[in-house]
Amino acid sequence: MTSVLNVDTIADKAGTGPVALTKQEAAKFWASYDAVANSVLGSFNQSSLTDVATGEHAFTLTNAFSSATDRAAFTSVFNSINGSAKDAGGDRAGPAACIGGMENFRALSASEVYVSSAYQARAESDGAARDYKAIYCTAIGDLA
Amino acid sequence: MASILKVDTITGVTTAGSIAVTGEGNSTTTNLQQGLAKCWVNFNGGGTAAIGDSLNAASITDQGTGNYKFTFTANMGNTDFCATGTAKETDSTGAVNNNGTGAMCHSHSASTVEFISFSPDGNTRDCTIAGLDIKGDLA
Lengths: 144, 139
Known about the structure:
The structure holds two protein chains of two kinds. Chain A has strands at residues 4-6, 9-10, 29-34, 39-44, 46-53, 56-61, 71-78, 95-99, 112-119, 134-141. By secondary structure, chain A is mainly β. Chain A has one domain (29-141). A four-stranded antiparallel beta sheet of chain A has the order 4-3-10-7, with no helix packed on it. Chain A has a four-stranded antiparallel beta sheet with strand order 5-6-9-8, with no helix packed on it. The radius of gyration of chain A is 18 Å and the shape is elongated. Chain B is mainly beta. Chain B has one helix and eleven strands. Chain B starts with 8 loop residues before the first strand and ends with a strand. At the A-B interface, strand 1, strand 2, strand 3, strand 4 and strand 7 of A face strand 1, strand 2, strand 3, helix 1 and strand 8 of B. Strand 2 of chain A pairs parallel with strand 2 (20-22) of chain B, so a sheet runs across the interface.
């Protein structure tokens, strides 16, 4: 017989701590961001976005992580300025993105996920910071 | 003594698709559904593109060199989902290609996601080891 549990909130036996998701863990943050329009399309646990500079984006979290470093964050971009066709010619050089400042140092923060995006530095491009139409990032770790 | 609840399905009472779980610091709650990956794929894009293992991926379509489209089994609720991916290429002996391979994804539609692998000069390039992760709202 299939069992179904209907519940709004799940806590540990004491009622104050987290339950274990056996051998797995849920992400604590994700965002889909259009840096050209400076618009967050979709997000989870994100309260605000600061467009720091071209290719420099700071996501402020609603609930902070317990640590600035004991977490894992991932990011991907799509090298299009219109959201559908890929760039051509010199603009097509593979996009690069990273967690943390690429051109400007910025200390990691438990309450922020900082993403940088740029052209890759090859003959067709200069590695300069660039805003992309689609920037995605996600993070996993312990909440404060 | 640790307690274990054994159940097949968990559904929200107030909102069926929304369950809060207590965070690790015991001071906040986080939404369980929003933190779960809605699709993930491990695939080989070299030769005949093939999915190795996956969740919620019905098929892979090879759209050309380094260009792949995945069709979801259960659609996303919109095109605002978060798609991250990574890729690399190995040669026929399995050695990593020194030209390197990057990857980018795009949430073009609620039923598919596009994945492109490329070399640093921006030319699309088939990848042989790649991963894709989707977070967002299911339909």
